[in-house]
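Figure 6 in text form: structure in, sequence out.
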């Protein structure tokens, strides 16, 4: 049954349509979230959602954004529901996707549902820690369940089979939605989806090391390890701090006078390198390019894993530490940044801002909250099978406490993660059926997903030399054959499953 505002409020909705902003102002006072503007995106539509699906007494509602493409739809065809993740759904909607090709071939209705608290789906007046208690994967799944009921009734989709799609975190949601509501969602495709929550996700950087070895051999890995060791030694001795500030072109307000600030600086460097691996589609690997003239002007597309290993193994650029600093400066240059802003206090201040127009409200603050309260996924340097140093688990727990609340300590996180896995992972492994897990073997997140075939039609697909959610993107003329083969396999499997009657 369609959720609507309490009796009598329909009149205010009508007034908003007739008289515009004055009535909208009244509505803002009655509803917790900001009232959506139709001009935000021409194709957007809205559905009323309950603020707290788990409180039967809750009478607060908000508007969630969704989009529909029916260009290919033939009556009776499947419904493809793409779940939004930790960002604006518009970015997902307007970029190419292999899902549209599947929808065309299967004559499906293609629908995108934005995740609560991301993009324009803003349930509360701000994103204070207290308000973020309504942000969780469980609330998001209930949003999707209600949305299916709503759209089924609105468009008379009573006999259509629903397939749910997602990538990365939203891929996890897709798999969990299928497991938790198998009668409502016929099958799922969970691209690059971590399905096992873990506080200390040290395997992430282990995958990065394997990628470095694949494209730079042991020379690249050893050089990175040496540079990390030297940098860590220098960070621990204040007499070297001015050298580090000069070598890595610190902005004037950056400092490294505490362990948290040191870890933050290291985190910035490691994230840049990890991004070359995780998002290698945007920064393609060029196997033929092995010789570089290192003084050329770079763009972000020039920053490849090959280039990084080329720098790290070039003895002409000095010691491994000096090469590491050289790459960091070339990264700044390509990103059009004048200096390295390694100010930890500034970062924490930004993350604490609770207004929807704050810099962190694009999804950074919200996603940190979810990792601190549900998933962990913290990419530490604790493993011996990776070359970096300086990012312990305590660094991430400190952020949870400084940004949100001192109650968000390690013990609280471990208890939450145990509940998350009991609620999702264990039922998925026991009873999951008709779920595809396409994963690139270059993507560090595949370490927490399913990568090989299992019973009950839990099908893991490992795609060689492929990156994060790459199989989900639209076809490119330079795509390797194995990536195309994976897309064809996904299509054939879905086609076969949708023919099933049960």
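Output sequence:
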């Amino acid at each position: 049954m369609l959720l609507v505002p309490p009796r009598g409020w329909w009149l205010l909705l009508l007034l908003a349509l007739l008289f515009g902003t004055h009535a909208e102002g009244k509505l803002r006072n009655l509803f917790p979230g900001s009232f959506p503007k139709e001009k935000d995106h021409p194709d957007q539509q809205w559905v009323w959602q309950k603020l707290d699906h788990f409180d039967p007494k809750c009478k607060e509602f908000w508007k969630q954004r969704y989009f529909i493409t029916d260009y290919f739809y033939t009556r009776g065809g499947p419904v493809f529901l793409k779940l939004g993740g930790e960002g604006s759904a518009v970015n997902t909607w307007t970029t190419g996707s292999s899902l549209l090709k599947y929808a065309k071939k299967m004559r499906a209705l293609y629908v995108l549902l934005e995740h609560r608290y991301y993009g324009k789906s803003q349930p509360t007046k701000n994103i204070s820690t207290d308000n973020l208690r309504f942000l969780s994967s469980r609330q998001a799944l209930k949003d999707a369940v209600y949305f299916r009921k709503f759209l089924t009734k609105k468009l008379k989709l009573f006999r259509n089979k629903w397939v749910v799609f997602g990538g990365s975190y939203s891929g996890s949601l897709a798999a969990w939605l299928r497991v938790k509501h198998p009668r409502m969602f016929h099958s799922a495709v969970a691209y690059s989806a971590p399905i096992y929550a873990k506080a200390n996700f040290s395997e992430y950087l282990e995958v990065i090391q394997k990628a470095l070895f694949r494209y730079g051999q042991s020379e690249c890995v050893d050089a990175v390890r040496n540079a990390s060791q030297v940098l860590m030694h220098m960070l621990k001795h204040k007499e070297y701090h001015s050298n580090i500030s000069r070598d890595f072109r610190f902005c004037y307000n950056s400092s490294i006078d505490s362990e948290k600030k040191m870890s933050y600086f290291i985190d910035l460097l490691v994230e840049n390198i990890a991004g070359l691996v995780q998002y290698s589609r945007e920064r393609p690997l060029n196997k033929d390019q092995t010789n570089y003239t290192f003084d050329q002007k770079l763009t972000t597309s020039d920053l490849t894993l090959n280039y990084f290993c080329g720098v790290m193994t070039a003895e002409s650029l000095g010691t491994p530490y000096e090469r590491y600093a050289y790459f960091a400066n070339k990264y700044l240059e390509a990103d059009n940044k004048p200096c390295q802003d390694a100010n930890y206090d500034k970062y924490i201040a930004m993350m604490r801002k609770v207004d929807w127009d704050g810099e962190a409200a694009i999804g950074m603050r919200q996603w940190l909250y979810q990792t601190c309260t549900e998933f962990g996924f913290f990419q530490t340097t604790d493993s011996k099978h990776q070359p970096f140093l300086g990012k312990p688990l305590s660094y991430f727990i400190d952020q949870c406490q400084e940004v949100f609340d001192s109650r968000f300590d390690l013990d609280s996180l471990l208890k939450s993660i145990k509940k998350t896995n009991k609620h999702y992972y264990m039922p998925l492994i026991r009873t999951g059926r008709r779920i595809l897990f396409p994963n690139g073997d270059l993507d560090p997140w595949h370490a927490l997903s399913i990568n090989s075939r299992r019973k009950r039609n839990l099908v893991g697909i490992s795609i060689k030399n492929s990156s994060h959610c790459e199989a989900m993107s639209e076809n490119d003329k330079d795509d390797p054959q194995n990536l195309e083969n994976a897309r064809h396999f996904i299509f054939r499997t879905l086609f076969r499953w949708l023919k099933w009657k049960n």
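Caption detail: The radius of gyration is 24 Å.
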